[in-house]
Amino acid sequence: MRRRCPPDPAITDQAKQVMEEYEMAHLKSGDMAPDFTLESDDGPELTLSQLRPQKVILYTYPAAFTPGCSLEAQDFRDAYADFERAGYVIVGISPDKAEKIAAFAEEMNLPFTLVADPDHKVLEQWDAWGEKTTFGRRMVGVIRSTFVIDGDGRITLAEYGVKAPGHVERLAEQLGVELAPF
Length: 182
Description:
Layout: H1 9-25, E1 37-40, E2 45-47, E3 55-60, H2 67-85, E4 88-94, H3 98-108, E5 113-116, H4 121-125, E6 129-134, E7 137-142, E8 145-149, E9 155-160, H5 167-175
Parallel strand pairs: 3-4, 4-5
Antiparallel strand pairs: 1-2, 1-5, 3-8, 6-7, 8-9
Helix pairs in contact: 2-5
């Protein structure tokens, strides 16, 4: 029979501190949404604060035309009318250049706005840029996240590390938005 050694308190405390710092860095419910102005897929810049008093669903995605990002965009597209009826505006943000998100929005027939953050400064400000594991590889990039912002600019929901399949349906359920059958 193998005996387990008790955990080293120094390592346990260090791990706890790292986790606390990580969680503190994330935006959370009740925080003011950091404002930004970015170029949109349809030309003019979009400033988040100018969407007030509307409620906003802001989702971050790694790259246009990739399977997971295409699935998530299509799911938001298919549920767009239901979210709009419930008073939500949808905005997607990625590090792609404006030309690429414009082509993506057109090809996917997206009825909502996408914005470009090629230098990922806004993604970093929202803590949606950092180290992650993708297909078993550690890398730095977009952490797929979703934020719900109320009409006063406060975050009411912040989810980091979401998975694209089923995400929009889960979000609708959390927000009490009834989705029409596809």
